[in-house]
Design brief:
alpha/beta; five-stranded mixed β-sheet
């Protein structure tokens, strides 16, 4: 028996989470006030697609950014990979604010940090701006 040869247009493919096709992309990334990074995501965030976000936040941390405003309104799925990334961001005293929080993202946020903080009168309703640990 012989094994079929790989088609000429397909070379060896690297395996691993960071080599997987990205299910997420950074829709936008901007900075303001010198230490705040705003990132808007769309798509899926799981262990196969979280690499680009992980790298982006590692670089932002190295450049001294201490605050992250993360818009998740277009995230269609997220699992513990996103939790690990966000907990890593807040672990060293950096601040996190989630905006555009969908019900699925709220469940994920609650799994990491418990009940949302109490709201004062005049504040945005749940889902419009959930603040994570360290905010």
């Amino acid at each position: 028996m012989t094994t079929p040869a790989a088609p000429a247009d397909q070379g060896p493919r690297e395996q691993g989470a960071d080599a997987a096709p990205c299910g997420i992309s950074v829709r936008s990334c901007s900075t303001y006030d010198g230490d705040t990074l705003r990132v808007a995501l769309h798509g899926e965030v799981d262990h196969l697609s979280a690499g680009p976000l992980r790298v982006l936040l590692a670089v932002a941390s190295a450049y001294g950014y201490r605050r992250l405003v993360l818009d998740t309104s277009l995230v269609t799925f997220a699992d513990s990979a996103l939790l690990r990334i966000l907990q890593g961001w807040t672990a060293e005293g950096r601040r996190l604010r989630l905006t555009g929080v969908t019900p699925a993202m709220e469940r994920l946020r609650a799994a990491a940090w418990g009940a949302p903080p109490a709201r004062r009168a005049g504040r945005a309703p749940t889902g419009k701006g959930i603040i994570g640990e360290g905010a």
